[in-house]
Each structure stands twice: as C-alpha cells, then as structure tokens.
Specification:
By secondary structure, this protein is an alpha/beta fold. The chain starts with a strand and ends with a strand. The chain has 10 helices and 14 strands. A hairpin with a 2-residue loop joins β6 and β7. Strands 5-4-1-8-9-10-11-12-13-14 form a 10-stranded mixed sheet, sandwiched between helices. Strands 3-2-6-7 form a 4-stranded mixed sheet. The protein folds into 2 domains: 172 residues, Ribokinase (UDP-N-acetylmuramoyl-L-alanine:D-glutamate ligase); 128 residues, Ribokinase (UDP-N-acetylmuramoyl-L-alanine:D-glutamate ligase), CATH 3.40.1190.20. The protein is 34% helix and 29% strand.
Length: 306
Amino acid sequence: MIYTLTLNPAVDYYMETAGELKQNNVNRGKNERFKAAGKGLNASRDLSIMSIPSYAVAVLAGFTGAYIQDSFKDYPFIRLVPVKAHGNNRVNLKMYSEGELTEVNGEGPYADEFIRNDILRAFEETSKDDTVLICGSLIRGFNAMLVQELCEELHERGTTVVLDSVQLSLQQLCDCRPQLVRLTEKELGALLNMDVTAENAKEALVKIRETGLTNILLTIDSNDAALMIGEQMYCLSHPKCRPVNKVGAGDALLAAYIGKRTQGVEPADALRWAGAMANAVASTMDETTLDEVMNRFDETKVISIA
C-alpha cells in the first residue's frame, strides 16, 4: 500500500486578474476556484486517477480542514486519514496575471506534542510491503528531527521511504536514508550550491550521488525531468508545451512513478508514465483523466543518458 503524508495541507485559491496586476490599487479577479491541496494529497489524487489505492495522512484543522476532508470523500481509491489540529489549514493564493503566476502561501496550524505523536502513530501499521511518501513543507512544530525519527521508525519496519520537497539540509536528507528523493532543479542547486539547468543536470546528479543519495527524480522547469537510479540515468523526451496549470505537475510526476514502480514496472517505463501524467496535469486547470494521460503516454519517450 502507498501512504502519502501531507503535514501542511492547504486550500488553494485560484484566480485570474481582469487585466494587468497593479500595485497599490484595487484589482478585479475572475475565474475563481478553490481546490483542496498539499503535495501528498495531490499525489493521492493522481494515484486515484490511475486506480491505484493510497492512504492519505493529512493534518487537518478548522473550517479549511473540513473543506479538505469533504473534498476527498468521493475518491474510491483514497482513504483519508485525518490528524486533527487546532486553528485552520492555510489558504494559498495562486494568482494568474497575463500568463504569469504569483503565489502567496499561508502559514498553517501548529503541531503540538499530541499532534506530533498522532502523526507518528498514523504509520505504526506499515510494513515491508508499504511505501510512504513524505511530501511538502513542514508544519510548524514538526521539525527535521521528527522527520528523521519517522523515517527511522519506517526503516525499522522495512517500509520504503520517499521524500518530496521536504525542507531538509543535505545531511538531514542523507540521514533519512530515503529510497527516492524528488527535487526541483532549484532545490538540487541549493543542496549543491550551484545553478542546475537542463544542460548540466547530469553533472549535478553525479555530484549528489557522491553524497550517498543515489536515487533522484529531478524536475527541471515545467517540461523536463530526469531520473537517477544508482548508476543509471534517464531523461524524458516529449513534446514541449506551455503549461496551462503550473501547480501540481511535479506531484503528478512522483505519484505516477511510484505508483507504477509498486506495480513492478521498471524505472524507465515508470518514468514514461510519470511524464505522461505530469504533462496531462499541466495541460488543464481541471482534474485530468486517465484518457488524457494515455493520450500523452504514446508521445512520451525515455532516453538513457548514463
């Protein structure tokens, strides 16, 4: 079974400005919509599209937490596991103005000792047959040491650990001993103190491999991705498109890759599925469908770069 953990979920508030965004002025919005979100929740939603079940563990608080919980009640392949907290989950503004995206993310609730223990207890039944995706930003009160503690407990039960965009230093990432880490080019660059681009991605992956992190799923800009599994490296080759939706494609990439790997699909083929899913998510503001993923699967190729 796949578990996803979203420590700091949100209600994403999408809107477009009716014209140019003006500072120190009243701006009018249009095409407003709300969406329950958070990297782990997004991953569970994307897995559900592929009919792959998951447990979605999420810290939920207040009226925004109730909205998030209600939003997931009709997904047959998702079992939401709420960890209740005080306050409210954050609201994240995703504002599009003349094709450019501006994001303002809220802070979210605080995890006290009781909530921290509830988070750890949510994974007590995991085993060697399970995979846990620890995704997104950390909630206040749940620091890097607690992430390491959770990872250690999962390792003791033989559970596969995957980290995605968790706010950890390079040493902390290594100490968590993840079987896979998803990083953006900016995150990888920050860890290595270098600028990472599509042109030098292979060099950067070789450098991070020397630290002991040998399995990396790397997203580059909005269209490119690379995968390193030990000594093997692959990159995606598919038609470039201007993304309609700039939020969630990386979550979809990871979800599809992990979902297919748990089904026994080889890494290169799983990356192909991942690229198709990410492309489908980026191509619409609405929820994508399996048909859309399949349409993009045929035009998605994987190239070995090792």
